[in-house]
Give the backbone structure.
Amino acid sequence: MRFAFFDAKAYDKPSFEKFGAEYGVKFKFYETKLNEDTVGLARNCDGVCTFVNDTLSAAVLDQLADLDCRYLALRCAGYNNVDMKAAGECGIRVAHVPAYSPHAVAEHAIALLLTSVRRIHKAYIRTRDFNFSLNGMTGFDLYGKTVGVVGTGRIGRCFIDICKGFGMHVIAYDKFPAKDADFEYVSLEELLSRSDIVSLHCPLTDETRHMINCETIKLMKKGVVIINTSRGALIDAECLLDGIKSRQIGAACLDVYEEETDFFFEDLSGHIISDDILARLISMPNVIVTSHQAFLTEEALSNIAETTVKNIVQMKREGSCPNELIWKKGEIIHGTK
Ligand code: NAI
């Protein structure tokens, strides 16, 4: 089996080569992202293996079907970049990696939070310059603070467990609340108005796009800390910037950004950044940006590769795959018979 592997990075190859060899899947690694211009690279392959910023529009999926490339192996959890209706209509089978290490993402969210509230990013730079002054370094205790968690799935629940360890009071909002929750569910509006810290862990859908916008930011406590390790477009970045400038938002910890596709994962040092909002956000002392790295642990990389390869084998050789995403009557069904 041959798969064209788009947006390949050095850290992807060892684990995919290892599990590919074990299960008889050969990957052709391409550094370029998949889009209408690069889709031809998938010629003579059974399918493609893609990541969060590859383009899987109807046009690209159509061309893949013309190349008889019938399998789409997403090496990530989110599938908001896939036109699932078009995939269904083209007869392209899609599978994702629903969970590989929720701990990796939850721990990164906490790392960003602690860095921000204890000014570790500033201390690191100061002490390297032998500047041992503490002026401007005053943080605040997490203990006793209210954290609002939006989305209480795999990652949200790990994040909640860690927050409880810090002695924080957890409130949560989820469209589909968990029955076994040992925390308080509230409406989104109440969550935003009561939380000292808001952390987003829900998927990007039409409903959640820009859930943090100029109106909802007004509901928040002055000085709120916002963490987003989920998908950039959950937040209207322009409103976030306004909220920071007006001091309504005390700090933002961002592992994702609405328009990240052209920037994240690439070394653009020495280039002029054309996105003024991203550049302005990064220039703020109370904004920390990491480049969609929350998933990047050894454990997660190994789990991603193993599950992706098994998904391919299950779809192609065995006919059924529990991680398949199937477009049926206007909705996405998980798993297959
Ligand atoms: P999950 O599917 O286990 O949990 C998502 C939760 O969001 C579910 O409880 C669901 O009911 C809830 N939800 C769905 N629609 C909602 C709505 N309209 N409002 C509020 N809640 C809603 O997903 P998981 O594994 O916890 O991942 C969460 C998100 O994290 C993913 O969608 C993905 O975008 C992001 N992610 C980011 C990574 C990174 O490296 N930064 C890595 C992996 C995932």
User: Anything to note?
Assistant: The radius of gyration is 21 Å.
